[in-house]
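Example 9 (inverse folding). The structure is encoded as follows.
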């Protein structure tokens, strides 16, 4: 029996999970997405082509890995079909390399309308969602009024859909009475036609992915799980309400795939050598000065999904220790060592000072986070050109000291080091 290796984001997303999955997929049979939807944007750069993956697991880019969209994902068929077309246009064979859980919930046009309407209604308390309908789709799942992939093929699909569209149209109109689109676009018949056409195209992929994954483990197949979003965006363990509507932590991997806790192998936590966040919410090490701007420009920190500029700051080890605890991380991947190495001096947050009380223990309490001041330790930077370094030993001493400090503080090894955006720019220890 094989076990599945898991890749998870430790902070607020965009840590470079896609790049780590892309590396692991080189000898993986299956790559699985467990949570989230097309709010995720995972970038892979290979042979001069940049892929932004939103729903299909990045592992599929190996050419031989089967991508599985697990039951915990909320799936927008339109986005998925565009993603399939794009991969086909780049020469990928998808028919035999994609499976979609029959239990995955389907995103419908009213979900994104409700997402935008709710944000508008929040006035100055906006979450800064991606507007992709993720929150409303998970709401329906838990309210038990969601439609799952298998429902697209059921005899009562038209009837269920019609009732839902009428109900949701009233909701959109309630939150956002000026939304003229809702009146025009939320037409049950049009949506029925649109979604039956999508269903036809997706039919070859929809199956029982739970049995598929378990049989694959029995056959000793290598499985990697591609976490989306990240620990601090978790609905339970993140900075609520400034979070997404799923569990991107280890528990969500189990409920979102049907693999058990005993099936989990290595759990890799991904971080950047600095921190970033897109959307609203607390961010203790955020830099609202030219240093933050410089990190953004050097790291090209603009959202893969929405294009929004990402908020940037120094690495926060207090948060990372929390991510290790919550997820049971066994090793780390540190990306963007090349980016941080361009600074003369680099700061790392090693404790929080909350009104004179210094602590290394993280809490998602908003009052705590808003009052926390970072206590920094400084390191020498100027790593020089490191993207050609293939081993840890080849790295300059300053870079090694920085990585060793992270390992000592967190107590687990740094197994992967990102030295550039390209597929090859990675040190594996
Ligand atoms: P994900 O959502 O966690 O997969 O991360 P994103 O793809 O949203 O954001 C990570 C960004 O950093 C992408 O633009 C990657 O191409 C880039 N990237 C990843 N690792 C490295 C690295 O080690 N160095 C540099 N310079 N860029 C990297
Ligand atoms: P990847 O997988 C960064 C953020 C949004 C917003 C909050 C809620 O690429 O790391 P949602 O649309 O999910 O309801 O928005 O969560 N967010 C992400 N930020 N990376 C992501 O995914 C994100 N997915 C959601 O910006 O603050
Ligand atoms: Mg991303």
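The amino acid assigned to each position is listed next.
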């Amino acid at each position: 029996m094989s076990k599945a290796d898991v890749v998870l984001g430790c902070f607020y997303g965009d840590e470079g999970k896609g790049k780590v999955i892309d590396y692991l997929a080189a000898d993986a049979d299956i790559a699985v997405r467990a949570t989230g939807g097309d709010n995720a944007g995972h970038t892979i750069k290979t042979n001069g082509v940049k892929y932004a993956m939103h729903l299909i697991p990045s592992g599929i880019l190996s050419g031989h890995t089967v991508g599985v969209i697990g039951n915990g994902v909320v799936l927008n068929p339109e986005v998925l079909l565009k993603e399939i077309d794009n991969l086909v246009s780049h020469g990928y064979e998808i028919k035999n390399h994609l499976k979609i859980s029959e239990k995955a919930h389907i995103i419908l046009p009213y979900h994104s309308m409700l997402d935008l309407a709710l944000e508008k209604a929040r006035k100055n308390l906006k979450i800064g969602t991606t507007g992709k309908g993720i929150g409303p789709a998970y709401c329906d799942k838990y309210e038990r009024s969601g439609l799952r992939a298998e429902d697209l093929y059921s005899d009562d699909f038209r009837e269920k859909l019609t009732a839902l569209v009428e109900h949701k149209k009233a909701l959109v109109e309630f939150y956002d009475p000026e939304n003229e689109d809702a009146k025009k676009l939320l037409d049950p018949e049009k949506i029925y036609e649109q979604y039956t056409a999508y269903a036809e195209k997706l039919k070859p992929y929809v199956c029982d992915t739970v049995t598929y994954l378990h049989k694959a483990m029995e056959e000793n197949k290598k499985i990697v799980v591609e976490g989306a979003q990240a620990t601090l965006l978790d609905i339970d363990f993140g900075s609520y309400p400034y979070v997404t509507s799923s569990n991107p932590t280890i528990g969500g991997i189990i409920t979102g795939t049907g693999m058990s806790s005993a099936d989990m192998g290595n759990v890799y936590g991904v971080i950047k050598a600095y921190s970033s966040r897109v959307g609203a919410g607390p961010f203790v090490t955020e830099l609202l000065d030219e240093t933050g701007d410089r990190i953004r420009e050097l790291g090209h920190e603009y959202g893969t999904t929405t294009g929004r500029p990402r908020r940037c700051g120094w690495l926060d080890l207090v948060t990372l220790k929390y991510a290790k605890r919550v997820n049971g991380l066994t090793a780390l991947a540190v990306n963007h060592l090349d980016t941080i190495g361009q600074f003369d001096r680099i700061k790392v947050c090693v404790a929080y000072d909350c009104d004179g009380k210094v602590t290394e223990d993280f809490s998602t309490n908003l009052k705590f986070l808003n009052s926390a001041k970072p206590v920094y330790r400084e390191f020498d930077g100027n790593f020089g050109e490191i993207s050609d370094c293939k081993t840890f030993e080849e790295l300059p001493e300053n870079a090694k000291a920085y990585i060793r400090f992270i390992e000592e503080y967190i107590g687990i090894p740094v197994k992967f080091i990102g030295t550039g955006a390209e597929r090859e720019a990675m040190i594996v220890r």
